[in-house]
Design brief:
Strand order of the largest sheet: 2-1-3
Order of helices and strands: EEHHEHHHHEEHH
Number of domains: 2
CATH class of the largest domain: Alpha Beta
Number of strands: 5
Radius of gyration: 20 Å
Largest sheet: 3 strands, antiparallel
Distance between the termini: 46 Å
Bound molecules: zinc ion
Number of helices: 8
Length: 158
């Protein structure tokens, strides 16, 4: 499992993606670029066409992971996208608040044992996320279901 980057050698514009097989994904990008198929990477391929084609782009791995599931990889990919702000990604790769909650809050103790430090760190950050509930309280995302059973919440939603 890895997070990878495709960078334009002349403009430094770049794309970030994730895959469970970097070599295969690399070829897939190349063939999609050539066949002109419509997909979520259109922005990248259009940019490639205007900027020297495949030879002018560098494919590299940013980070590799072992023993993680696809859903976790997607969350990490989104984190990279949020932080590095790639110019050639068109769509959000992942992460509704609900998915994050299920991944890091409900299974937190299990994941803490199973996964490397890095994943733990990402999880911790998400665990601290809060949201404004319709009852007027600001609640920790992880405590959403518990909060929704409280008398305060129930009596304050009409
Ligand atoms: Zn509430």
């Amino acid at each position: 499992m890895s997070i990878y980057k495709i960078k334009c050698l002349t403009t430094n514009d770049f794309y970030i993606g994730s895959t469970n097989n970097f070599t295969r994904r690399k070829y897939q990008h190349r063939s999609h670029f050539r066949c002109n198929v419509k997909n979520s990477c259109d922005k990248l391929y259009d940019f490639m066409r205007l900027n020297g084609g495949l030879d002018n782009f560098d494919f590299s791995i940013l980070e590799e992971f072992k023993n993680i599931i696809k859903k976790e990889l997607k969350i990490i990919e989104q984190k990279y996208i949020d932080e590095l702000k790639p110019t050639l990604n068109a769509i959000k790769s992942y992460a509704t608040e609900e998915d994050i909650r299920l991944m890091y809050c409900k299974g937190s103790s299990k994941y803490r044992i199973k996964h490397p430090d890095k994943i733990k760190a990402y999880g911790k950050e998400y665990q601290q996320r809060r949201y404004d509930c319709e009852c007027g309280k600001n609640v920790q995302l992880c405590k959403k279901s518990r909060h929704e059973k409280t008398a305060y919440h129930i009596s304050n939603i009409a």
